[in-house]
Design brief:
The protein is an alpha/beta fold and 302 residues long. The protein contains 13 helices and nine strands.
Length: 302
């Protein structure tokens, strides 16, 4: 499989511009995937530059280029700080995070990330670890399911959805994508099937992979490992992620509450490079429909 088939890098030029890459610098791509962003970073860092790439998905290894300037870490990016310490890397000049699911993951039926195929409900980024989506659906208490659907999927009828799943699973375990859709037919609003299922699958994926906790840990670690003047570029795909990143960039905390000095100046560890989220233009969306929901934000460590 070619790298372009694995995953088309979203907002490529915008993210590289945001990183403001310097020759000889040390950079991190915490979501290697198909390696599209990483390859372009390597073109710009020069012979003395270095790139550390993270990915917990074993399939990503197939896309690694042979380049001595690249260090690959087969771990979740929430281990960024400890992994860099183990590599004796004191500080980095830029970090890129392209959040969400790769084209490869969505288009591989057996991974269970998409309702387009009848497949086992897995959804784990790292298939060697953790509970599958099926296990979450069959084992979680009703109240927990309500929380997952409402908080992570922003599903308005989350109580009805959770109650339906709990009732149906008592007759037979929920194991496959099409089985799940059949079970929840009464919950899906007319003419909104795709939107509703997308929200449901997003909620399950976030829960299965502990994505919001991972993002918080990444943002905190980035603030520690970036050199002064280093950039953090984050591409998010839903409002939960983007809101968290926006608040952290604004205030240095997840509440978005700005602290001020004696003179009323905001005390924040970040300088905002992008005041507003950068979005893909119409041409890119036409080439790659998954760019439609992408939001890119850039901040520089003071």
């Amino acid at each position: 499989m070619s790298n372009s088939e694995y995953h088309i890098p979203v907002l490529l030029e915008e993210s590289l511009e945001g990183l403001d890459i310097k020759e000889g610098g040390t950079y991190v791509d915490v979501t290697f995937g198909g390696g599209g962003h990483s390859r372009e970073i390597l073109k710009r860092v020069g012979e003395e530059g270095q790139l550390i790439a993270f990915d917990r998905d074993a399939d990503a290894r197939e896309n690694l280029p042979e380049d001595e300037r690249l260090i690959f870490v087969a771990k979740d990016f929430k281990f960024l700080e400890t992994s860099l310490k183990m590599k004796r890397i004191e500080g980095v000049d830029g970090i890129l995070a392209d959040l969400g699911v790769s084209s490869h993951q969505l288009d591989t039926p057996e991974r269970g990330f998409s309702y387009r195929f009848d497949a086992p409900l897995d959804m784990r980024m790292d298939t060697s670890y953790g509970k599958t989506a099926a296990e979450v659906l069959n084992e979680a208490e009703e109240d927990e399911l309500v929380m997952i659907f409402s908080q992570y999927g922003e599903i308005t009828n989350s109580k009805k959805l959770a109650r339906t799943i709990v009732m149906k699973r008592s007759a037979a375990p929920i194991t496959h994508t099409q089985q799940l859709e059949g079970i929840i037919q009464s919950c899906i609003p007319p003419k909104r099937r795709i939107k509703y299922l997308s929200q449901l699958y997003q909620a399950l994926r976030i829960k299965v992979n502990d994505e919001m906790v991972g993002l918080r840990l990444l943002l905190q670690a980035a603030l520690k490992v970036l050199n002064p003047g280093g950039r953090l570029v984050v591409i998010s795909y839903h409002s939960l992620e983007d809101r968290l990143v926006k608040r952290f960039f604004k205030a240095g905390n997840f509440q978005g509450k700005e602290e001020k000095d004696f003179y009323g100046n905001p005390l924040t560890p970040w300088k905002l490079i992008s005041r507003k989220a950068i979005q893909a233009d119409e041409e890119e969306v036409m080439r790659n429909s998954r760019a439609r929901s992408a939001r890119l934000r850039v901040a520089e460590k003071k």
